[in-house]
């Protein structure tokens, strides 16, 4: 019991103190999205070493790309507390303008991650190597956290109770547009000739600080982004071609809607993939026998309308996203057998509408 609690607490601390991304427009020496830069600053290691590990996993395990996309999904920008995956799981109206940008980025990252990780392949090489790379990423994250459990002061938007005892210079980093500097950040002390250099009391005040020189544009990060986009596009085209050859084109990335009106039309399992899933049971008539039905969310919103004339025993399982599914019994006074309905959330909001009484 103690080991399990300790493990759970460590995992929670890892997530609460996970590194932010520091892209180049925020002052980081980022090459793509600032993932490696943020990991380096958070755990006080050379970001170049992190980049080398991702590249090595790309050419050896073959899963460095989905591992990088997963890290991108889980890491918020410097100055923010909401990662792209969290922005996707929330309603758009609940997000601030900077978080809405992360939401659209999150949807694209999820699509590319699903396609490149091999989740829709059956025992293929891409699937196995993607899982190996992700496991290696998680193992490295665990080791880094055990080595440096406290983050630098002023790095995380949601400041933890404990931070590194030694200050870390974060003066070169700027928070994301529309956000504030994270709490706990300290500015370098002002120039004070009286306190630090008594022999220089007669010196004049220093002039204005020199203006920083603009950075020279870097070409190769755009080349890397182009290669990444090309790889993603080829993966999409390959997946579409494979689905077309197998006769299943359009079965994954599409909205799905079901409205059974009779017991014979009722399926045992409604599963969403990428897109909206709507299961409308309002027209369902009285059941002759008990039925078990599962509604499983995929990537996208799930909407379920409960029947009005059928007894329902509802069970709910949360996924990643907001949900208003309330387990319990509905329509107890209705005639006929009971519908055992289980709703399992995926990645996206879950909305369950009960009949008005």
From TrEMBL:
Cross-referenced InterPro entries: Phageshock_PspC_N, PspC
Localization terms from the record: Cell membrane
TM region positions: 52-75, 107-140, 219-245
Pfam families (alphabetical): PspC
Keywords in alphabetical order: Cell membrane, Membrane, Transmembrane, Transmembrane helix
Annotated Gene Ontology cellular component terms: plasma membrane
Principal cellular location given in the protein's record: membrane
Membrane topology type: Single-pass membrane protein
Domain Phage shock protein PspC N-terminal: 29-77
Protein name, as recorded: Phage shock protein PspC N-terminal domain-containing protein
Organism field: Corynebacterium marinum DSM 44953
């Amino acid at each position: 019991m103690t080991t399990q609690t300790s493990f759970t607490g460590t995992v929670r601390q890892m997530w609460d103190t996970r590194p932010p991304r520091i892209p180049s427009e925020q002052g980081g020496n980022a090459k793509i999205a600032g993932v490696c830069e943020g990991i380096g600053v958070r755990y006080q290691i050379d970001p170049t070493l992190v980049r080398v590990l991702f590249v090595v996993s790309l050419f050896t395990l073959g899963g460095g790309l989905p591992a990088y996309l997963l890290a991108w999904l889980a890491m918020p920008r410097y100055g923010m507390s909401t990662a792209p995956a969290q922005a996707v799981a929330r309603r758009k109206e609940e997000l601030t303008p900077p978080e809405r940008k992360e939401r659209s980025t999150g949807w694209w990252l999820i699509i590319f991650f699903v396609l490149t990780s091999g989740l829709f392949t059956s025992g293929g090489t891409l699937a196995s190597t993607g899982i190996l790379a992700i496991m290696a990423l998680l193992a490295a994250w665990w080791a880094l956290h055990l080595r440096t459990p406290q983050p630098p002061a002023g790095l995380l938007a949601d400041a933890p109770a404990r931070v590194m005892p030694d200050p870390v210079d974060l003066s070169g980093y700027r928070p994301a547009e529309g956000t504030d500097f994270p709490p706990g950040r300290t500015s370098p002390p002002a120039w004070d000739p009286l306190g630090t250099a008594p022999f220089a009391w007669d010196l004049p005040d220093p002039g204005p600080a020199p203006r920083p020189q603009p950075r020279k544009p870097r070409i190769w990060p755009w080349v890397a982004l182009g290669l990444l986009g090309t790889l993603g596009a080829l993966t999409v085209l390959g997946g579409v071609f494979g689905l077309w050859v197998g006769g299943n084109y359009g079965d994954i990335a599409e909205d799905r809607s079901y409205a059974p009106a009779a017991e014979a039309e009722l399926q045992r399992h409604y599963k969403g993939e990428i897109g909206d899933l709507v299961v409308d049971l309002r027209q369902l008539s009285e059941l002759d026998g008990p039925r078990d039905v599962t509604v499983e969310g995929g990537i996208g919103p799930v909407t379920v309308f409960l029947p009005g004339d059928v007894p329902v025993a509802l069970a709910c399982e949360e996924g990643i996203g907001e949900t208003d599914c309330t387990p319990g019994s509905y329509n107890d006074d209705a005639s006929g057998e009971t519908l055992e309905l289980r709703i399992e959330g995926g990645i996206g909001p879950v909305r369950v509408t009960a009949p008005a009484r």
